[in-house]
Design brief:
There is one protein chain. This protein is α+β, with helices and mostly antiparallel strands. The chain is built from nine helices and seven strands, in the order ααααβααββαββαββα. It starts with 18 loop residues before the first helix and ends in a 5-residue tail after the last helix. Mean pLDDT is about 75; it is low at about 295-310 and about 350-370.
């Protein structure tokens, strides 16, 4: 919870909507106070030697009272900036005035809230990456130590275990690099027209190893309407999206289940779906699964239908789809889970991304995916 500032100072000019008007009122107030004191002093025959100092002192008091309220937000902002420099992002500024200083205070509060959210995300990212790296590293270290100590011998099984942990580390590093590049906007899309029937067939060929490793007997069904349907996309990046979705579907499908890949034209857009017969995702988890390192088990706690078990697959898929000007969501389906990707059908200029501000659009859409 954000730490609140001390009770606000007296701010009699907060109702005025311009700093220029406030300065005018301040000067007018000081002049009126000085004139009134001078008139009273002369009327009571105090003489200039006593009236003038009293007039100046009265003008200074009026100026101090009015100016103190005008500059209070600036002093609070200064104190808040010093606190933020020490890592405290909970401080907020009391923004009650309607002038430019009040606008600055409100903008500062918005910035402080954003920085606090980014700092929490950074801390969570470090904690999650540390956890994800520690697990395979510990397993790999234990296996190698056993070999060195002679407890176990380098058989094909032990070497396969070491290799699988190394591959998991490699996948995690690749996913982290992809996330960094996508968030920085340092990705150029090589847009071309992709025939989806052939694309789905290639995706299933690439997923054959995942199916084999799962030990499950699964059936796959492809439906494209119309048969020659094409979509405008970067083929390599779109393969990355479908690979993640297929990997999740395979991992969560029951033995003997069916995974359906479908594509259909909807006006000027193309809708792609990957549906499985697994446990599904509860409605209240369907937005969170697109966040980094989020996981959800069948009991409905945290989820990770993300790529290759790193918790990053759907975050990467969301960024890639947003860069194409599309959307990705968990569609209503029962039983199982249906992941729906909507992309523009029109081919854009080759080598250009659909929008320069795609990373910001992606952040704004996080709360709207459902």
């Amino acid at each position: 919870m954000a730490r609140r500032p001390p009770p606000p100072d007296l701010r009699p000019l907060d109702a005025l909507g311009s700093i220029k008007i406030k300065l005018g009122v301040l000067v007018t107030g000081a002049v009126v106070a000085a004139s009134l004191i001078t008139w009273v002093g002369l009327a009571n025959r105090l003489g200039p030697s006593r009236t003038l100092p009293l007039a100046v002192f009265g003008a200074l008091i009026v100026t101090q009272v009015l100016a103190h309220g005008m500059t209070s937000p600036l002093r609070e902002i200064t104190a808040a900036v010093r606190a933020m420099a020490k890592g405290d992002y909970s401080v907020r500024v009391h923004a009650s005035s309607r002038d430019e200083v009040g606008d600055l205070a409100r903008a500062f509060n918005t910035m402080a809230a954003d920085l606090a959210r980014v700092d929490r995300a950074r801390r969570d990212m470090i904690a999650n990456v540390s956890h994800e790296l520690r697990t395979p590293v510990a397993a790999l270290q234990a296996e190698l130590e056993n070999m060195v100590d002679g407890v176990t011998y380098p058989t094909s099984e032990t070497l396969q275990l070491a290799l699988s942990q190394t591959e998991r580390l490699s996948r995690l590093v690749i996913d982290l690099l992809d996330i960094s590049r996508l968030e920085a906007g340092a990705v150029d899309l090589n847009i071309s027209s992709i025939r989806l029937a052939d694309f789905f067939a290639e995706s299933l060929d690439a997923a054959a190893f995942v199916v084999s490793a799962s030990g499950k007997k699964l059936a796959f069904h492809i439906q494209v309407s119309p048969e020659g349907l094409t979509v405008a996309a970067d083929e390599e990046r779109l393969h990355q999206v479908t690979a993640n979705l297929l990997s999740n579907a395979i991992r969560h499908s029951p033995d003997g289940g069916t995974i359906a890949l479908s594509a259909a034209a909807k006006g000027r857009r193309v809708v792609l779906q990957v549906a499985d017969q697994g446990t599904g995702i509860p409605p209240d988890q369907r937005t969170r699964v697109f966040e980094r390192f989020e996981r959800a088990d069948p009991a409905g706690q945290a989820d990770s239908r993300g790529g290759a078990g790193t918790g990053l697959g759907l975050a990467i898929a969301r960024w890639v789809v947003n860069l194409h000007g599309g959307t990705i969501e968990v569609a209503d389906s029962s039983p199982g889970c249906t992941m729906r990707v909507t992309l523009p059908a029109r081919v854009r200029e080759r080598g250009r991304t659909p929008a320069a501000d795609a990373p910001r659009q992606a952040k704004d859409r996080e709360s709207g995916v459902a």
